[in-house]
Structure prediction request, 452 residues.
Amino acid sequence: MNQITKNDIEILQKTTLFLNMSEAEIREMLDCLNARKTTSLKNTMLLHYGDFCDSIGIVLHGTLHITREDFWGNSTLIAQCVPGDIFGETYAMSPNHIFEVNVTAITDSEILFLQLGKILSVCSTACTFHNRLIQNLLQAMASRNYLLSKKIEHITKRSTRDKLLSYLSNESRLAKSADFTIPLNRQQLADYLAVDRSAMSAELCRLRDEGILSFHKNEFHLYDVY
Amino acid sequence: MNQITKNDIEILQKTTLFLNMSEAEIREMLDCLNARKTTSLKNTMLLHYGDFCDSIGIVLHGTLHITREDFWGNSTLIAQCVPGDIFGETYAMSPNHIFEVNVTAITDSEILFLQLGKILSVCSTACTFHNRLIQNLLQAMASRNYLLSKKIEHITKRSTRDKLLSYLSNESRLAKSADFTIPLNRQQLADYLAVDRSAMSAELCRLRDEGILSFHKNEFHLYDVY
DNA sequence: CCTGATTTGTTGTAAATACAACAGAATTGT
DNA sequence: ACAATTCTGTTGTATTTACAACAAATCAGG
Prediction:
């Protein structure tokens, strides 16, 4: 079993799950959660489709790719996980605990696994932070849910134009202002909205020319016209 | 305060949250969760963007529409809720508890609200089913998460063809067979994949003609060709 | 069995999008 | 300051998709 370092703890302290807990508190929790720290070398698959999985993973170092293969064997990237990210909680919470994606380390990586069953049952040592942890886990899942719903909302729109307006409208709302800065560059935005970058770029300019919005780099402004 | 009827309990018993609990157990829980049953008349908005919301809703009767308005005031349907469905858990679990969508009763409806804070803190009466409820809530959120992720996976594909193959490939996997029946008709599938029905129908036939799959009504078969 | 309603497939056309290739702007590292 | 690299916008073309309108098939009820 690998030792959990002070550095690891610092990473955990930045995760939703252990936010604002002290090192001592976290170490107590890890004990209680039957934490296992594992290492995966570059380009090795650490979790496979069909694996039994009752634990959630937290990336400590490195980068993981979550992928899925279709009927014909074509692989698609679903998510990329970097230090601090949680993965597998959906499958760990599913009734049969069967993992339905592949997880591959694309660099040498360290991952911490926490046994979810231990989180759910009140632990015998009745550690003080148990409730906090449950609350944090629920919050993390709610937050993921929120992000997924938002993405679906944008991506479901039929045209590139409507996808852009849906996304920008939401960013404006977040900023509570018609002026706002988006955190994605053009390529990232195109990937997020599942459209072609150059076509999207052209559409943005059309929206600008029609006086619906204006932008300079990543700063946008929406005009209240109708 | 409206009375919770035996009929209401029967609906609750079919929800993920209270699955397999007895009437007595549920009534004890409801007390502990500060449950409020409310009535909404047809076409009234019962929750608004910006409302404070620390409770999750369960539909007992009627139909609700969850919608969102964009910057310019255009409204989009996000989800439809029918008896047994849970809603609002994402916002109830968010840090600031601010509701970001609108909920409208489109028929006369009855809704049960459960105060989420009560779920999270171990209740003073230490009711036996508290842990079960937390576990069920986590499972419900995981399950929603799973569905959202799946949808994103399909819908992110650039062409109608790839969306179809992604969806059908997954259904085949669920059925553990190259033969399977899908639970959606053509219009529903088109809506789910965010494409035009007739274009999708045409694409399905093209896939059939190319020998990639075959179908009869909602029964499909995928061919293992390359 | 018949009728009307619903679902599914078909086709042509207009519109939107992807794709490819490139030019200019901005950024980074030296 | 310069070169190399990345990012963004532009344009033309081929492809894909939406849309509309309709035909065929299927379904539901009387």
Notes: Chain B touches chain A through 50 residues (CB under 8 Å). The first strand of chain B starts at residue 36 and ends at 40. Chain B has a mean pLDDT of 91.
